[in-house]
Amino acid sequence: MRRMLPTLLIPLLIAPAMPARAAADDCSAVPWMDAGKSPEKRAQALLAASSRHQKYRWLVEQPANSPRQTTWPGDVVYPVQVPCTPTVVYSDGPDGVRFTPGVTAFPATIATAATWNERLAYAKGAAQGTEAFDKGKNVLLAPGLASGRTPLSGRTPEYLGEDPLLTGLIAAAGTRGIQSGDRVLATLKHYVANEQEFDRQTSSSNADERTLRQLYDLPFEIAIDRGRPESVMCSYNQINGVYACENPRLNEVLKDDIGFDGYVMSDFGSVHSTAPSLVNGLDQELNRPVWFTPARLDAALAAGQITQRQIDAAAFRVVRSYIRGGLFDHPLPATPVADASTAAHKAVARQVAEQGSVLLKNDRMLPLRPESGDTIAVIGPTASATPTNGISAGSVCSLPWRFGNPQTLQCEDLVAPEEAIRTRAARAGATVTFDNGSDPAAAAAAASNADVAVIFGYQRTGEFNDLTDLRLQGNGDALIAAVAAANPRTVVVLQTGSAVEMPWLASVPAVLETWYGGEQMGPAIAALLFGDANPSGKLPMTFPRSLADTPTAGDPARYPGVRAEGETIRQVEYDEGLKVGYRWYEAEDIDPLFAFGHGLSYTSFRYRDVRVTGDGHGDLRIRFQITNTGRRTGTEVAQAYVTLPAATGEPAKRLVGWSRVTLAAGRHRTVEIRLSRADLKDLHLLEYWAGEWRTAPGTYRVHVGGSSQTTLSDTFRVR
Fold it and tell me: Contacts by 200-203 with C-beta closer than 8 Å and gap 24+?
């Protein structure tokens, strides 16, 4: 797979052959290696001992991270770095350590969001961080987060859905996990309003300040406040006509208002200038030197376009983060581990696959309870490890990537659904037949001869291209319709990276969304289908009935944007404002196919007696009772939303908290979602942007339920 990567990316993804620290260096007396001093003091000491061009090295990824290398393409030359600085290797990694053999293939990031489980997100991040270090990589370009403006966005599966609170808190948990070993740094990406792949490098996301603050900045702010990442990556797009990596928002919003004190790195090729980028807050150019070369920095300095103080500040932020994150004190292993995946990491991958799968529909069909002699027909190319026309379970294990369409994770230990279902069915004495679905008539015949049909539908999407529609690929809709007509006991298993339309929904009794399930997809799907695991996932994004119902549909100015004749930049107007995701559907009174937060279980839950105490200035306590009214133990993700006073102009209610509640059959519990004073302030749960964050006086209505389509509510007043 690596041979397919573009030359530009190879230095990023392959560790240098040189040792982590030159053997001749005596680091015992070097002040920046004194672990008893603060990261600030150590960084200051290093820079004080550096020449100007040694400081320049920190402003570009490859010179910063390969301290003994002195030359780069284009006759770019640096002096050798000061002694006792670490070798650093960056790796892409939202869903795992990408393009690297011998690592765990975790489910797609969207599946992590669908767990609504911060502890599990932390465990996944910790496993990723450990595997990265063991494989000789100590900066992960992860987690990824956006705001779900359109489900057509190609990178939807590597983000965390459409709500800023859910996105921010799950990203924060993953960040803490990645950095938990004090050996690997996490990078939030991509800042900001990077909501489409189409013309991402030549488009401007045009939005008013309130929209930017409340929807697009907010998930980053929450992830920074609760996760403390050492790095943030700026995006390709312009924001209101200025490229993200030279936009004043880097200083004025990200660093000053939000308080981010790590370093800002660029995306690949997203730098377009020297002085404007440095002055406005870019600290490090990704990959090789292009705009932050010694010659260009010297020229800008001589012309008065930049100052030595600005150079020093950028270098300081990079060095401090490297020290603070443990990169100076924990050198990379001289020999990377051949197989960094462990049984514990695989168990985490399976937990994410199980808890992140969402039972969308179940009309008394699941779980399967086959008897001896029953036959289960498994249908569809993505159920099998054997490719059909190039498509197999490996095609939906992780995100596809553009160059030759390899997967972002190699999924070496993939267990395909067909294999896992066959093994599980055998325990009950049932048999499994398989049809790859290439001929709908043959698939229908296979289904008609079985007691149950389990059909797999897929949608592949990833970086560099947006989806053109929300339909299943590989003739999936026609295949499901044919199978459902042949056997009314048909279960649909979806393996998608975004929402899909379901024209066949009324004809099937059960639908299970499993996203891109990683290497443990087979055991996880089998456990869910047969009831060994009870579904608990909830949608982190709305599934519309049709593409026409989405916020950007029917308006080229909103998506994909309009490019005037003779202009190079596509103007994308975010004039839907705050009406994104579930807020759009509620404000426009559009009934979605499946609401944000929706997800069924093999048991049922009843909510009652919601009570709210507090006045919005101190702690706010939302109490309610949940009863498991079914026949088996299950976990419910209870969600709380708040509608602000009408004077704020908010289009709809917003998520303010949730609680994962596990109850045995027939048991009930009083649940409390406590929003502390710090939560209310730091996460802006009750606030809106009006030149500053404000809390409006008036009546607030709290809504509680199992999705954004809640039924119970109570009120409180802010005076």
Answer: 200/235, 200/236, 200/237, 201/236, 201/237, 201/269, 201/270, 202/568, 202/569, 202/570, 203/237, 203/238, 203/560, 203/561, 203/569, 203/570, 203/571, 203/572
CA distance 711 to 351: 30
Number of Cβ within a 10 Å radius of residue 351? 19
* Active-site position among 163, 267, 466, 679: 267
Alpha helices (runs of H) in 135-194, residue ranges in sequence order: 164-178
Instruction: Give the bridge partners for 671, in sequence order.
Output: 624
CB distance 357 to 481 below 8 Å: no
- 372-416 residue pLDDT tens: 999 999 999 999 999 999 999 999 999 987 655 678 998 999 999
Instruction: Note if 267 is an active site residue.
Output: yes
pTM: predicted TM-score of the whole model, two decimal places: 0.95
Alpha-carbon torsion, ordered 19, 20, 22, 25, to 10 deg? -160
Q: Closest by alpha carbon to 149, among 592, 587, 542, 581? A: 581
pLDDT digits (tens, 9 = 90+) for 35-81: 999 999 999 999 999 999 999 999 999 999 999 999 999 999 999 99
